[in-house]
Amino acid sequence: AGTQGAHVILTDLQDVLTETTQANLRANMQALRPSGDAFAGTVSLQALAWGDGPDRLERAPPFDYVLAADVVYRPELFAPLKWTLLQLAGPGTQVLLAYTRRRSQEEWFFSSLMEDFTCSAVWRGCTGRTDEGKR
């Protein structure tokens, strides 16, 4: 997205954003622009824990898109995750969550999201078949 003009912020916990993570980002960005030309957009790494306010980020929300993968995994973090998503999103924001089902408590999290977001689900089972439906 950053190569196409978007301003992208990649977030994770502070202790995860090591020099290795930063080196990997630089290597990937270099691979995407072998000519050395500048991108129209930007890509940055920033620390953000669920429950932290977005005022720590270099750009202020709301964002056009919030993409999150493998973030629904500990029930005690469901409420802070939802709060953070609400802080990052605005009326036009699309939030895309990719996750692997681990436990039944996740149903509470997604039911809770439906109180504040319009939700659609795309399910992919072990067969590789995709079933799309409104929840």
Automatic annotation (TrEMBL):
It comes from Pyrodinium bahamense. This is Calmodulin-lysine N-methyltransferase. Gene3D superfamilies: Vaccinia Virus protein VP39. Pfam families: Methyltransf_16. It comes from the Eukaryota.
